[in-house]
Amino acid sequence: MGTAPLPGTCEDRSTVSRTATAVRVVALAAVVVAGAGWVVTDRSVTLRIDGVTRTVHTHAPDVQGMLRTAGIEVGDHDVLTPSPDTSLSRGAEVVLDRGRQLTLTLDGKMRREWVTARTVQDALQDLGLDRGRLRLSASRRARLPLTGMAVKVNTEKSVTLVADKKRDSVTTYAATVEELLAERDVTLGEKDLTEPARDASVVHGGTVTVRRITVKTATEKVDVPAPVTKKADGDLMLDQKKVLDDGRGGRVERTVEYLYSDGLLAKTNILSTKTIVAPKPKVVVAGTRPYPADDTGLNWAGLAKCESGGRPNAVSSGGTYHGLYQFNVDMWHRMGGIGLPSDATPREQTYRAIKLYKAAGRDQWPHCGVNL
Predict the structure, then answer these.
(1) CATH code of the domain containing 176
(2) Which helix (H) or strand (E) holds 350?
(3) Cβ(209)–Cβ(202) under 8 Å?
(4) Which region, left, alpha or beta, applies to residue 263 given φ > 0 means left and ψ of -120 to 50 means alpha?
């Protein structure tokens, strides 16, 4: 049997030393293994934010993780390339362009745009507004802050200005008609008008017209016609009208405002009216009785063509015979007509002709009756 070393002896100290050394070796091996794993997952990535480039070391597997560990948030209007779920490899490049709100007033009309451009010039180019000559409220080289910026943009326009009997072709950056007139030293009177309106936009190739308005007021006495009162009469045929009372015109005094545009009368406004002589109404009775159907089966159109050429208002050279069927006035009244046959409607003239035919036959038209 062996004998255990005595405590405190040289042999005991040697055993302890070997044990400690073994522990240190194991610990060092663990550190080396862990370090090797750390080195394997470390990635060197190029991150460019708004054109500024830096190198980022990360162990995150994708773009989103890398940005999160770097404390970088991506806004709704930012543009990130590649997408957040893209896997990262050594040497990858990630580009983040921050969104900026541009409050743009273009030729007087305001709108808001989100852009990732970093200068006014780049923003105009991105929005397709860099063509043509522009007048800006800020330098093209001005940088757009992340907090946003307001820029006023006026485009160059060629327009025709018509004012004070002159017609000029002008080049302007004015946004509205009012701005154009101020630019050209055209002063408007209280009642002067413009076409288009003063607050309208100036359009390239358009025309702006100034109309000088002059107002004159006068007091006049004028005659006024009698008003017409209409009544219905069931004993009269449709289309028949009869005047029961001719009435009488009146006379009024009125105050009138005359508006002249560039010296020409454009509008008349009646400001007030005072009656001097009151008019008396004219009373007209209109028939409501419907016409019966034609039960003769005769060719009334043929008769009318022969008698008058088919013209309801025809009057013979001597003034004796009227209308489609050349009634004389006495016969017309005997058949129930009112006034002159040539003033009646074709429907009524035919109705009266049918009545005459039924009373006296076709001999009432000795030359044209054969056409019936």
Answers:
(1) 3.10.20
(2) helix 346-360
(3) no
(4) left
